[in-house]
Design goal:
The protein is of the alpha+beta class. It has a single domain, classed as Roll (Ubiquitin-like (UB roll)), CATH 3.10.20. Helices cover 23% and strands 30% of the residues. The protein contains two helices and three strands. The chain has a three-stranded antiparallel sheet with strand order 1-2-3, covered by helices on one side. Strand 2 and strand 3 form a beta hairpin. This is YgiT-type zinc finger domain-containing protein. It comes from Immundisolibacter cernigliae.
């Protein structure tokens, strides 16, 4: 197992929260990955306290428009 740090998005629009540098365990052989219970608890804590701990940033957003096949 390898420890990686990933970014995940929660919610959308005005309720969007981006959490960076989340530790995630990943298997280089099969590609399966998981978060530890402690990490999941911390994600929930961050989500609950988002108004007091999150920093607002401007984020560019682009829409993916697939060409018809």
């Amino acid at each position: 197992m390898q420890l990686k740090h990933v970014t995940r998005n929660f919610g959308q629009g005005a309720a969007l929260l981006v959490i960076e540098a989340i530790p995630m365990w990943s298997c280089p052989s099969c590609g399966e990955s998981y978060f530890s219970a402690q990490t999941l608890h911390e994600i929930e804590r961050i989500k609950a306290l988002r108004k007091s701990i999150a920093v607002n940033r401007m984020v560019p957003v682009a829409a993916f428009e697939a060409a018809d096949a």
